[in-house]
Amino acid sequence: MRWMRFEIDGNISYGIVDGDAVKAVDGNPFEGYQETGKRHAISDVKLLIPVVPKTFYAAGLNYVAHVEEQARLHGREINLPKKADVGYRANNALIAHGETIILPKDVTEKVEYEAELVVVIGKKAKNITEAEALDYVLGYTIGNDLSERSWQKEDRTLWRAKNTDTFSPMGPWIDTDAKLKDMETIVSVNGEEKIRFETNKMLYSVEHYMSTISRYIEIQPGDVLWMGTEGDSPNLKHGDVVEIEITGIGTLSNPIVKKN
Amino acid sequence: MRWMRFEIDGNISYGIVDGDAVKAVDGNPFEGYQETGKRHAISDVKLLIPVVPKTFYAAGLNYVAHVEEQARLHGREINLPKKADVGYRANNALIAHGETIILPKDVTEKVEYEAELVVVIGKKAKNITEAEALDYVLGYTIGNDLSERSWQKEDRTLWRAKNTDTFSPMGPWIDTDAKLKDMETIVSVNGEEKIRFETNKMLYSVEHYMSTISRYIEIQPGDVLWMGTEGDSPNLKHGDVVEIEITGIGTLSNPIVKKN
Fold it and tell me: How far is B173 from chain A (nearest CA, A)?
């Protein structure tokens, strides 16, 4: 099943994707729903981010080649994370599939994508084991953790580098059937493939992150956990379109515009 | 004016503090409201956090003696921040005035308070100057940025050290009349005063942080900005009660319980 969140005629609701259409529901996938009987062509509705997260967790450094690349970029030694220490991102930066990534006029040329699997939590979880973790997942979507690497290097925190408005595209929908082991992440810029990796080949697994977090924090329905990215990115510029596909989920596509 | 958020008979609403009572309103201080005519004794209602933040910003290192103390603790050189780089905290950790701070059983003895002024944003703000920043503030409340210093030192991020459930008491209400220049922060543990400092004697001012953030991010009504803390804290333990007063706002008080 695929859950979309959308707007039509000024009303926001959830719906279930059915081919090229969406079947509207009252309620939501977290607390319960029923179909309204209304059906819209997806091309007639405005897609929204599939959930407004209660808490927006980000796994950060979680793939080997990406850690090596970041160490080189920042002139540090390569240190693979010794533990699953999660970070946070800010809701202000979230935009939906198809919306425009707007680069402030003072960005440098070092703007990069980070293609990430996004875990959407379905049920409250406290002190869960790795074996049971996936029972608490509603489904998966896709995130692009846009990063301005000069700011990432200069600033004490990631606030500008990763949380500038529009820097966190997420979507297009939540897929509840996709399986971690079958996923492959493919990133294209302007239709040209740039990288392809096994999504689940992480340093610390989804299950491990969830179990670890839940020792100290009750994870909530609607929380999202971005799982980090692999490899490197070319510099992105005005006019580019970034597409991130994860097999079994779909494709998140966003154009880039730089402000004058 | 003082804005409370509270629950009575299972209903959550905002209200205006009037002596020992609260006058309930329909709506909220951000989008508009009208008084309902209902009035409750404050002792009869359950206080809630005064706002569920859209984005929860934290200024971090923003007072001289605190920066020095943290440098000593982590064995680093003293480096005053060269810029106003904001960080983030997570909503899961928020609790209201009077609610219990729960320490997980594996905390070390190094649990400390951080007494912070909290700025509550009232209006959307993008590209604002320092001179106009305070026009976008609804009012002020108080935050306690509880910190487990061993975890802060060990982990790659602050997720456990500062965002464990119940580690971010905030309240008791939002005061819209308090003036930055008149504020003094006083922290007591079990009734004994531990520190007192001029709240507004910051490295980077409220106005400067807001102006800086707004260059990259449209600040939203309901966002909160925690302004950092001064000095040091004794180790806190099971049974302690931490009270943070900021003159002109009120007092945030929370007991501490350690899990067995």
Answer: 22
